[in-house]
Design goal:
The structure is a homodimer of 185-residue chains.
Chain A: H1 8-19, E1 21-24, E2 32-35, H2 37-41, H3 43-59, E3 64-68, H4 71-83, E4 86-92, E5 100-106, E6 111-117, E7 127-135, H5 139-150, E8 154-163, E9 178-180
Parallel strand pairs in A: 3-4, 3-7, 7-8, 8-9
Antiparallel strand pairs in A: 1-2, 4-6, 5-6
Helix pairs in contact in A: 1-3, 3-4
Keywords (chains A, B): Cytoplasm, Glycosyltransferase, Purine salvage, Transferase
Catalytic activity (chains A, B): AMP + diphosphate = 5-phospho-alpha-D-ribose 1-diphosphate + adenine
GO molecular function, one term (chains A, B): adenine phosphoribosyltransferase activity
């Protein structure tokens, strides 16, 4: 297929297929970790993935891009810039100075929490598209949605580069559209 | 001054002055924390700061943008995209799957480390501009430079949004140009 005929998503899928680094047994035995660092470090691949994710976020009527700490920052920031939007940094607990709004969530072992500043930013009534690199269990993304809704923001959808099948991730995301750049594996 | 006459840096400085959130005694007593989350969450301010940092990175002949985990990702990713470059995610210890290259550095209390993948990315001979939100002690940025040089990359300079004066940050950065968007306070 000629370069022009390739859609934005095709180019992004090619980049992900070519540059993703696969590492067995990380962070624990039995997990195949998909490291996108080489995708982002390569100009052509990085631009291709950002372009596809921006196209998806625009379809979801994004007014602000929500980036998940920390790998979601690496994609969400560029997508926000391309669309001329702000990027909402959804931080892990303790990273932001008080006062903050906090949303706890269950992990496989124990709990974690996400936070937003409770001053200086007003997301009430805004359409927020949440961006991260991978949809796995969906726990973090689900918590991010609750956090945003607790600040009267509206999550109009999720855009991810890749998805790990079989972990029930989409069940945690509620009735919002989920767009994943790479085809399910 | 009319909108057109304002330089890229003037617009960015206005955005930082207007939107930065100041919080006393965070992360510890006596520290005035400057939270840029509201700057990034506002479309106009975010674009203004990214444009200024991209202008600076271009002056420093960037071939790749190095973003420091995690707030450096929020700026470095957009700057890289604007310049059509890749973004090198310089991660905190343990976040990347092996094999990795590690650079330890001293903290006020204890040590920390930064890591890069030792496969899948080739930065040998490349001009890398390091981007973070704040220049404080310069410890993390100095370690990032050593890490990149250990992979035969070349740090052609640093671009920061703001600088905390009086912490000797520049002493840690070696003989490379440092561009800070906001005027020294």
């Amino acid at each position: 297929m000629s370069e022009q005929a390739l859609s934005t998503f095709d180019r992004a899928r090619e980049a992900l297929d070519k540059k993703t680094r696969y590492v067995q047994d990380f962070p624990e035995k039995g997990v195949l970790f998909e490291d996108l660092t080489p995708v982002l470090g390569d100009a052509e691949s990085f631009v291709a993935v950002v372009d596809a994710m921006a196209e998806a976020a625009e379809k979801l009527n994004a007014e602000i891009i929500g980036g998940l700490d920390a790998r979601g920052f690496l994609l969400g920031s560029a997508v926000a810039y391309k669309l001329g939007l702000g990027v909402l940094a959804i931080r892990k607990k303790g990273k932001l100075p008080p006062p903050v709004v906090t949303q706890e969530y269950e992990l496989e072992y124990g709990t974690a929490a996400l936070e937003l500043p409770s001053e200086g930013i007003d997301i009430a009534g805004k359409n927020i598209v949440l961006i991260d690199d991978v949809l796995a269990t969906g726990g973090t993304l689900g918590a991010a949605r609750k956090l945003i809704e607790s600040c009267d923001g509206h999550v109009s959808g999720y855009v991810l580069a890749i998805e790990v099948p079989g972990l029930g991730g989409r069940d945690n995301l509620g009735d919002r559209p989920v767009i994943v750049v790479r085809d399910p594996q």
